[in-house]
């Protein structure tokens, strides 16, 4: 199958999201031959429209989002711990208050940055997922067009009913933003 590609500047992404997409494709460069091809395409500013490359890219962004979510959870816990310390030791903490407030402010800033990154990656992942779905649909159409024209409808409907779904549910919510 010949691989098609689309310029990553035509995906509706911001400059920061394009950089994240290119970083994701470059990170996959050491994997399978399709991952290496996707990495080469990325260096040319292209998104390779190959279902296995798009699938690998989707898994990469899933992992990256999970890492960010873990960091958000850790920092949220730190912020809660700080708040609790302030209530528990309000009378005796005056001397270290400035340092603790600076740490708390830093935690909140990191949380904000991580949430922005998370949203950017989620946006990129949705675009990759959409392209992957279209590519897989086109691949199914090409496979079914190879059969005789009078059996086209039967084989197409049979193939799509037996095709395993590789979709992912979006399990992340934005509820963590209401913490501060």
UniProtKB/TrEMBL annotation:
Domain of life from the UniProt record: Eukaryota
UniProt KW keywords: Cytoplasm
Organism lineage: Eukaryota, Fungi, Dikarya, Ascomycota, Pezizomycotina
Keyword Cytoplasm: yes
Family according to the record: Belongs to the BLOC1S4 family.
Purpose: Component of the biogenesis of lysosome-related organelles complex-1 (BLOC-1), a complex that is involved in endosomal cargo sorting.
This protein's GO CC annotations: BLOC-1 complex; cytoplasm
Keyword presence, Cytoplasm: yes
Segments of skewed composition (Basic residues): 149-180
Xref: InterPro entries: CNL1
Membrane-spanning intervals of the chain: none
Region (Disordered): 142-180
Protein name, as recorded: Biogenesis of lysosome-related organelles complex 1 subunit CNL1
Subcellular compartments: Cytoplasm
GO biological process: endosome organization
């Amino acid at each position: 199958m010949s691989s098609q590609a689309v310029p990553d500047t035509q995906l509706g992404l911001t400059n920061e999201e394009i950089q994240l997409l290119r970083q994701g494709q470059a990170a996959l460069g050491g994997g399978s031959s399709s991952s290496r091809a996707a990495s080469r395409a990325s260096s040319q500013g292209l998104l390779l429209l190959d279902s296995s490359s798009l699938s690998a890219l989707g898994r990469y962004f899933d992992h990256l989002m999970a890492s960010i979510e873990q960091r958000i959870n850790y920092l949220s816990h730190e912020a809660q711990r700080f708040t609790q310390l302030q209530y528990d030791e309000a009378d005796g903490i005056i001397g270290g208050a400035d340092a603790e407030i600076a740490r708390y402010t830093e935690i909140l800033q990191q949380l904000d940055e991580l949430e922005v990154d998370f949203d950017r990656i989620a946006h990129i992942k949705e675009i990759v997922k959409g392209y992957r779905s279209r590519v897989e649909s086109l691949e199914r159409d090409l496979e079914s067009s190879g059969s005789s024209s009078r059996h086209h409808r039967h084989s197409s409907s049979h193939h799509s009913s037996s095709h395993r779904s590789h979709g992912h549910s979006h399990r992340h919510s934005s509820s963590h933003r209401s913490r501060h």
